[in-house]
Amino acid sequence: MEFISEYGLFLLKTITLVGAIVLVIGAIASASSRNKNSAQEGDIVIKRLNDDIEDYKDAFEDAILSKEEQKALNKQRQKEEKAKAKAEKKRAKDGLESTETRKRIFVLDFNGDVKASEVDLLRHEITAVLTQIEKEDEIVLRLESPGGMVHTYGLAASQLKRIRDKGVPLTICVDEVAASGGYMMACLGNKIIAAPFALIGSIGVLAQVPNFHRLLKKNDVDYELFTAGKFKRTVTMLGENTDKGREKFQSDLEETHTLFRQHVQKFRPRLDVDAVATGEVWYGQQALENKLIDEVGTSDDYIVNACANADVYSVRYEYKKTLQEKLGVGVQAAIEKAMTTVLNRIQQQNVSKS
After folding, report:
1. What is the mean pLDDT of residues 329-337?
2. 209 or 105: whose pLDDT is higher?
3. How many domains does the chain have?
4. Integer Cα distance of 94 and 75 in angstroms
5. How far is CA 86 from each of CA 76, 78, 98, 289, 334, rounded to the nearest angstrom?
6. Sheet-wide strand order for 138-144
7. Does residue 339 belong to any structural domain of this protein?
8. DSSP letters for 40-86
9. Is 322 exposed, middle or buried (0-12, 13-18, 19+ CB in 10 A)?
């Protein structure tokens, strides 16, 4: 048993070392490829979500219904389809507009980090959808973000404003969190729906700056900062901060907060901004009471219900992966699988020994 454990650990170390080398080589090659062509190209991937719902229904019908029940159900559906086709034919003969025209809903996703990194994907997706959108259609954004940098989330919010400017209904669905920069985006929605325990709000501005000046001074280390412009640098991490610099820094934060408040007020005019722009967050039901959102519910319910009367499509922009990136992902997956297998076997051996 000891031999098996030692061999397993040796194999694990070998796999880890080889995998690390391959990943480093792949990362270097990938970085080199990106430097040669910094403008990554990608494709729009569109999927009809109604098909997923229909597949679920078919799977359950096959599993639950007897052959006789399935036969009767199919017969009923064929009868309904014939009646529907007959009614459409009559409407066309009478010169009436077809009832077959269905609303289209385009579903986008945004998972925000501190830098709002997915804004580049979002801008591609919105550009693509706006080439085909009609005013009777709708765009749904499944939004998850705790917020981050002001300028990047400001750009993300500006992308959503492109939808509003087109006069197309925009629905924002939040299942977990839309706070700070996340709410800066969410408030652009004509309708905001949040899950009961989703975190909403945080209309405030935060900045944290550590200062090591006393530590440097204690160790006889001089730090010199040269600027041109009275407030080119207000507070620093290494230099000695002044009261005047701190006042200016705080003033800048207050100004940013004012702009944030005005932004929210513009797109949520019924909201009492003074009451909610305190930096606090609220759960879904509380957010509804404070008029930060319009409904309590999940994105799943909204989209499934929409599939009954509309054609619903998910729209996603995906960058093309280089060969090196594909290799790196494949190697990583193989290493993770091998490591898991080895660890499981070692654990089983230890359990059996005891």
Report:
1. 67
2. 105
3. 1
4. 29
5. 15, 12, 12, 48, 56
6. 42-48, 310-319, 103-111, 138-144, 170-174, 191-194, 295-296
7. yes
8. --EEEEEEEHHHHHHHHHHHHHHHHS-HHHHHHHHHHHHHHHHHHHH
9. middle
Q: How far apart are CA 44 and CA 69, in angstroms?
A: 41
Q: How far apart are CA 351 and CA 259, in angstroms?
A: 61
What φ, ψ does residue 52 adopt, rounded to 5°? -65, -45
Gap between the Cα atoms of 85 and 329, Å rounded: 50
Give the count of beta carbons closer than 10 Å to the beta carbon of residue 349: 15
Instruction: Tell me the one-letter amino acid at 40.
Output: Q
For 296-321, the pLDDT digits (tens) are 999 999 999 999 999 999 999 998 77
pLDDT digits (tens, 9 = 90+) for 236-262: 888 888 888 889 989 999 999 999 999
Q: Are 200 and 293 in contact (CB under 8 A)?
A: yes
Asked if the structure places residue 37 within a domain, the reply is yes
Terminus-to-terminus CA distance in the chain, angstroms?
12
Residue 326 included in any domain = yes
Tokens of 22: 């391959």
Phi, psi of 7 (to 5 degrees): -65, -40
- Contacts of residue 335, defined as CB under 8 A and 6 or more positions apart, other chains included, come to 15, 16, 19
DSSP string, 134-188: -TTSEEEEEEEB----HHHHHHHHHHHHHHHHTT--EEEEESSEEETHHHHHHTT
* Structural domain that includes position 23: 1-41+321-354
57 is a domain residue: no
Predicted confidence (pLDDT) at residue 351 exceeds the cutoff of 50: no
Per-residue pLDDT reduced to its tens digit, 90-145: 766 766 665 557 899 999 999 999 999 999 999 999 999 999 999 899 999 999 99
Question: Whole-angstrom Cα distance, residue 260 to residue 255?
Answer: 9
Among candidate residues 301, 312, 297, 268, the one with its CA nearest the CA of residue 137: 312
Distance CA 217, CA 209 (A): 18
**pLDDT score for 9:** 60
Residues belonging to the active site: 180, 232
